[in-house]
Amino acid sequence: MTAAAPVLDRLPGDRPVAREPYAIGLIAILTTVVMLFTAFTAALLIRRATGDWVRVPLPGIVWVNTLILLLSSAAVERARAAVRLDASRRAGWWLSVSALLGLLFLAGQIMAWRQLGAEGVFLSSNPHAAFFYMLSGVHGAHILGGLGALAWTLGRTWTGAYRPTRHAGLTHAAIYWHTVGGVWLWLLAILSTL
Amino acid sequence: MSTTGHGGFWTRYVFSTDHKTIGKQYYFTAVVMALFAATWSMLLRLHLAWPQAQWPLLSKLFPGLYEGGVLLPERYLSLVTMHGSVMIFFVISLSLVSGFGNFIIPLQIGARDMAYPFLNMLSYWTIVPACFLMLGSFFAPDGAAASGWTAYPPLSALADATPGEGLGQTMWILAMALFIASFTMGGLNYVTTVLNLRTRGMSLWRMPLTVWTLFIASIIGILAFPALTAAAIMLLLDRLGHTSFFLPTGLVMGGEVLPYHGGTPLLFQHLFWFLGHPEVYVLVLPAMGIAFDVVATHGRRPVFGYRTSVWALVVIAVLGMIVWGHHMFVSGMSPYVGEYFSIATVLITAPFSVLALNLVASLWRAEIHLTPALLFVLGLMAAVAIGGLGGVFLATATSDQYLHNSYFVVGHFHLMIAVVTFFTIFAATYHWYPKMFGRQMNQTLGKVHFWLTVPSVIVGFVAMHFLGMGGEQRHLYDPTAYEFLRPIQWLNVLISIVMFVAGASQLVFLANFFGSLRFGARADSNPWLGTTLEWTTPSPAPHLNWGPDLPVVFRGPYEYRVDGAGEGFAPQNAPPRQPAAAMAGAT
Known about the structure:
The complex is a heterodimer. Chain A has a single domain, classed as Four Helix Bundle (Hemerythrin (Met), subunit A) (Up-down Bundle). Helices cover 73% and strands 0% of the residues of chain A. Chain A contains 5 helices and no strands. In chain A, helix 1 packs parallel to helix 5 (168-193), helix 2 packs antiparallel against helix 3 (88-118) and helix 3 runs antiparallel to helix 4. Chain A is elongated, with a radius of gyration of 22 Å. In chain A, 37% of the residues are buried. The model of chain A is unreliable at 1-17 (pLDDT under 50). Chain B is mainly alpha-helical. Chain B folds into 3 domains: 19-206; 208-249 and 258-369; 370-522, no CATH class. Chain B contains 16 helices and 4 strands. Chain B has a two-stranded antiparallel sheet. In chain B, strands 3-4 form a two-stranded antiparallel sheet. In chain B, helix 4 (73-109) packs across helix 13 (407-437) and helix 11 runs antiparallel to helix 13 (407-437). The model of chain B is unreliable at 1-5 and 578-587 (pLDDT under 50). The interface between A and B is large, with 43 and 58 residues.
């Protein structure tokens, strides 16, 4: 008997190839997103402790923007519900609504920058304002990425590529979109209270 | 079946999505970058040994760096900065993790390619502009970045702080941002490929240690790199948007008080080292994994403690994420926090010792074939042992107070992350060259390369420890300017001479590498009689790696001396004996 005799109950086929290679990639991407904003949060907490921290009141429009982003997330869920009912056309409309709301959110964030600028508060005027401009900007870049994903799923939806039981791409785009929306809620919470 | 990457010249060699081509592209890119970074280090050593000497020829060769035959002080700092940045991020990372990682992961787990071949190509073509930005920064109006590879503010945040901190530093930051983007794409690919594309029978506990280490290193990278992204964004805003994230109150430059207010340079150091320390493990762990594979194959025995090695890797990865503060013992932190970082750092020696001792024990009663690949792994063990001893003194906050920022540190980290990783790159090259190019490298030249390289780098970097104990600071332009350093200046001369030998002996390697492409003996599919899956496919491995059927795995990765003899071995895809026959044999 050799020392290297294979264990017979673990013969070939004990691990079939997974069907959803993009799920793991998505988890990895979301990990980097969460770690990035965790690092920014830590930076804000440390910077805030140095003594010259004065909170600048955020422009009122950011609350409207937040509502728009929440509605956009809800619209993505309506689209997924429609796909599950095999209603591709309806799903396409909901996705369009969601993407338009996402664009509206970005436009609203730019409005918020302009309002702050009009009050004489710029990037270099105040550390809190610097964090607001920077975090909303970096977050906006992630929203742009999400809009790209939504546009791609929209194309797939129009061509009827998603089936009630097979629409992983749409689910992944939705998870990304909700996560980036959640990141905004977190940023808003720390920027409006700290 | 997809034939992507196997069409015309452009899709086959330039914009290829084949993991093996991309791996080679990374490798060759790293070789080019290494030629630059090594040349810079030779110029630095020349200057450090004879700071007052004049070299008119060098003035002609490098008109921007030299004046009157003497290396300019500000250019000296640029060369130190660029040598470190390029070596760590654009040579070691690119060749070891991106190069061999791309080449070997699918071959060792029985996959046809990476999980996302297009993303893989994109990650390579993201690193190319980063390389051009790095090298091109020498042509910025006031030269390349000069704030060290750690780019600490305020120096790195103020364009007028020192020559090189203008456009050069901005280009450095942008190059690093591209590097992080590229490395993240690569890590994403490695993790997904390892989790999803293993062939039938290739359970996690049958993966070679090279794959395990690359897998764990990728996870570390995904978790740690975003911190540097955040730091880079804030540093750019401080530089270009005049924010005060890292710039404190009361900075005076040229007699004028700068308008910055309230920022904290320490914040940058925390963010930088949150990436910087795990980055060490991103490089060293794959080096250890490859070392295990080489020892098993060229020592003809199973590695010692396969499972404990994997668990040790996991513990190192976790601890490696929470010890970054030991780089900042003298930057200003509460002694209690320093004590925590000190203890956590010393704790890492436990799993790392398990790993290193398993590697040494894998030689016990091995049938050692002293091929260049194995020789370089033996060199790696020497470097880990010597470098590790120095590490104990740096991990302890009290002794680090004295040794910090001295040549002791320079010697230590060169042993641990330069020698260990370069020796692994050499070992991996000698080991996998037949699979990459279908030919063998010349073994005699390989041994000449080894015996010229090893004594010189070990002597050189150990001598740096003594310089540090004598009080010589790193980044020092002219050590002889200080009276107390003059008695140990002979050490600098010694170090420079052995490093010139080490540098010149790399020409033997390059000649062997490029000469063997044409003149090397043809290699068959399994020249080392290895057990892992890459040896089951022809050399060089064809596009899509195997024919119509992927190999099926029945065994662990290191089944050598299966019948008690030295030469007997069972490849991972060797089917088990018939149960009846095995039973009959047992009774």
